[in-house]
């Protein structure tokens, strides 16, 4: 699965940050922001905050991303892309 959050800087330049889908110990899906040396939980509040500032998520599996964020399928700001 491909997933990335697209954010814009003050000059309007677009930057993509990789997201990864992980299974928790209970089997639930969790979305994580993938960095060079570690991963960080990508929480729903962060998605909403970034979306309010023009960011969005591109993914090959919008249903899985929405589920990992505990959101309804078709949530605004999550877009399907082809691999």
> Main beta sheet, described?
6 strands, mixed
Tell me, rounded to a whole number, the average pLDDT. Answer: 92
Q: Widest sheet: strand order?
A: 4-3-2-1-5-6
Secondary structure class reads alpha+beta
Tell me the overall shape: globular
In short:
With 83 residues, this protein is an alpha+beta fold.
General description of the model:
The structure is a single chain. The protein is of the alpha+beta class. 16% of the residues are buried. The mean pLDDT is 92. Helices cover 19% and strands 39% of the residues. The longest helix is centred in the middle third of the chain and has 9 residues. It is globular, with a radius of gyration of 12 Å. The N and C termini lie close together (8 Å). It has one domain.
Give me some keywords for this one.
globular; six-stranded mixed β-sheet; 2 helices; 83 residues; 39% strand; alpha+beta; 19% helix
Summarize the helices and strands and which ones pair or pack.
Layout: E1 3-8, E2 14-23, E3 29-34, E4 39-41, H1 44-52, E5 56-59, H2 62-68, E6 78-80
Parallel strand pairs: 5-6
Antiparallel strand pairs: 1-2, 1-5, 2-3, 3-4
